[in-house]
Amino acid sequence: MTSVLCRVLGREDVIGYSGARPTPEPAAAVNPAPSIAVPVLGHVASSGPSGERYALCVGINDFQNLPRGSWLNGCVNDAKDFAEVLGAGYGFADHQIEVLTNAAATKAAVMDKLREAMDRAASDGLKHLVFTFSSHGTQIPDTSGDEADQSDEAFATYDLNQAGDQWDPATLISDDELHDLISRAPQGMLVEVVLDTCHSGSGLKALDLLPGRRPRFLPPPTPIGLERTATADPRAFRDLVSRSGAGARPVLLAGCRSDQTSADAVFEGRYNGAFTYYLLQELRTDPTRTRKVIMAAVIKSLTKGRFDQRAQLEGPVAAKNSPWGSAFAPHSG
């Protein structure tokens, strides 16, 4: 599938982890790795060709219809780095990880991959899905009437484009669409979502505009559009996972509240999302800790680095008290 998509697009932005991993950047430009080797956790040992786990890591720096000044720098690194950690410490085989970057990460491509995963979950027993997404966040008018702030959170794909006063819904992923897709996960399936985007320009502060930092936020494309999405509900991410019905309850890790901004920043000469950078540091150091403990350490690091964003952990209580990458009792919180 990866090679076919590469040929169709005429690009190499789709990275299939089916052989040697990408050559690391020169030492001076690579994030300093902790001295502790990442252990392979017994409860997520590789399932080989059975395909019981699948990871889709998406990172978008460049955008087809946006000026270069609105592009980002660290999202592709986020996706590749997360894929590396999943393979090194969480039992994902190379063929169970796909990375979509830049032109390969259109809305259709991302949603098709997620739909395929949900189809597999219903047919051949996919048990663990990881979806990471690093890009711009934005807001669009709520059309379903389920948002108190009358705005839907949305995630920009490569083909993001304008339609009238707003962004074209056909060129981004709304929180409603992501929720509806994830809610197809059957009971007993572990779904972990990591979002390193931001969703409200009202959270911008001077620190976000320092050299080497860029907020991962795009306002609506016109003044009228901005007026229609002028507020943000900080509980929106909570709703993304809490509204799930009889199926699996997903676990969500988000780089900030939905009324804040996430930073694209330089660490040791290399760009990453601040949230992803600190999260992966913690997962490499000791992945056996609970999600709650790991996220507390990430928040502490963000605060120490003078990032105003407050990372969010949403999901059942049992999920918060279990290690990242591990299943939890579905009805225990």
Automatic annotation (TrEMBL):
InterPro entries, sorted: Caspase-like_dom_sf, Metacaspase, Pept_C14_caspase
Signal sequence range: none
Name assigned to this protein: Caspase family protein
The Peptidase C14 caspase domain, residue ranges: 53-313
Superkingdom classification of source: Bacteria
